[in-house]
């Protein structure tokens, strides 16, 4: 029952709706008492051997009116109570979605996507059931059960009531216990089904890799094994389900048998009329559902409560990156200016004793270009992630126009930056929408211009529906180079102060890369650009190039200065130049 207390905020908010719904539910239970009583009165008339047509018509009329009332009362309680449950579902779902949007990287490192999906679907449904089915079963089992019992005692006989209803509490216990098992196995079946879904999704998304590695047959075999496993788990659901039906038939049958034997004897002894026995048998029909309901109620409430706790726990998690220290009065113009790094050391939260950046100090004036180069794992992306405020805890500070970036509201900061990673995410919509993702009101001309600057326009015009061509899930229908260029076009449409290309042109050839960088140079003369790359030609025109090794700056300067220094950069330049010549 604690779940009703936990959800009291919602019931208070929807007080009127639930009051109306419960009132109609109670009225339905009372009207439900009428037909059995009428049937009994009719049977008594028939038993007397003569029928008074006026009385008979009145009885039929009463049944018709009761049926009409039941129809409208049911409509009203369903509308109110199911409507309430749907509203709760909507509120919880949007709350969770908003929360997912607010949370940062560390949250997504802690939780797997599949689990988050399960919270947003199964757990929300279980809580929704409390506000719908839970309220219905609680009111029904109490009001309908008790009122039917009272009617049995008043209109029929209290002894028969006690004796006949003896098996029904076992029905309640059976519904509770077996229902528990059924729910457990149902949960397992759901989990197996979602594993199957994940597998299907992963295989379809990774179809290129699967095919090129000749793993098609092996993958199909793995899928078949999962299907067999899922069927086994589902068999368990059917097992509990098929045990439940015979049990309820047995207990209900027993109740009817007792009624007919004991009630029949009472009719023979004239302590009960035939009509009363008929009414009683009809009342038993009214009692079966409330008994089931009590059993169900425990399951619904238990599951709902556990699910609600899980949702609350998730919602209670706070993002580590907050605007606590931020000045809400800052505007875009306040944060346009020089970018200065003074990082003494930075370690990722899951490896706090292993700093990955040491003594990163540099200044980048507005309009300048920074090149970050170095071996794999040298720390290029880590430097960029700090500017994007994916991590806030480090020794030192990064300033933009003299302001510590932690003082700048995150939304304002990110509006100033366009980040293009090596593998950007493309949505399964058309090219136009993907490019204008960060500026949904962008004009077609802006989109085309961004595509031209990214050397993508010609490719798009070759496609079946040019800018309206659908790109498939995560751009499956595009080549790696097309995806990267589309990400750059998306970043250009945003027109932000700082553009970051993090290995963002690795899948295009050197000539195309140079063409793109040249047009970026012209376009972004007064704006800051950061380029992290393995291909040194990409940064040769940068105002400052930092060579990183094990998280430290080991060389710094312009292209010419670094060549003159004869260090790693000069060596690498020669190697890459040679490779290019050999390639040609
Ligand atoms: N989320 C993380 N948690 C813990 N360590 C990480 C995390 N991301 C990166 N690292 C580690 O930090 C170091 C620097 O990685 P980083 O991605 O910054 O290198 P990089 O120079 O960008 O490499 P690449 O050229 O492959 O992109 C590496 O040792 C890497 O293993």
Please provide a brief summary of the model:
The chain is α/β, with parallel strands linked by helices. 65% of the residues lie in helices and 10% in strands. Strand 7, helix 19 and strand 8 (528-532) form a beta-alpha-beta unit.
Named CATH topology of the largest domain: ABC transporter transmembrane region fold
The CATH homology group name of the largest domain: ABC transporter type 1, transmembrane domain
Number of individual domains: 2
Continuous helix count: 21
Mean pLDDT: 88
- Radius of gyration from CA coordinates: 36 Å
Summarize the biggest pleated sheet: 6 strands, mixed
Q: In which order are the strands of the major sheet placed?
A: 6-7-8-3-9-10
Number of strands: 10
How would the global form be characterised?
elongated
Helix content bin: 55-70%
Strand content: 5-15%
Estimated structural class: alpha/beta
What's the level 1 CATH class of the largest domain? Answer: Mainly Alpha
- CA distance, first residue to last residue: 76 Å
Low-confidence stretches: none
Q: Just name the CATH architecture of the largest domain.
A: Up-down Bundle
Write out the distinct hetero groups bound to the structure.
adenosine-5'-triphosphate
How would you describe this structure in keywords?
single chain; 584 residues; alpha/beta; ABC transporter transmembrane region fold; Rossmann fold; 2 domains; six-stranded mixed β-sheet; four-stranded antiparallel β-sheet; 21 helices; 10 strands; elongated; binds adenosine-5'-triphosphate
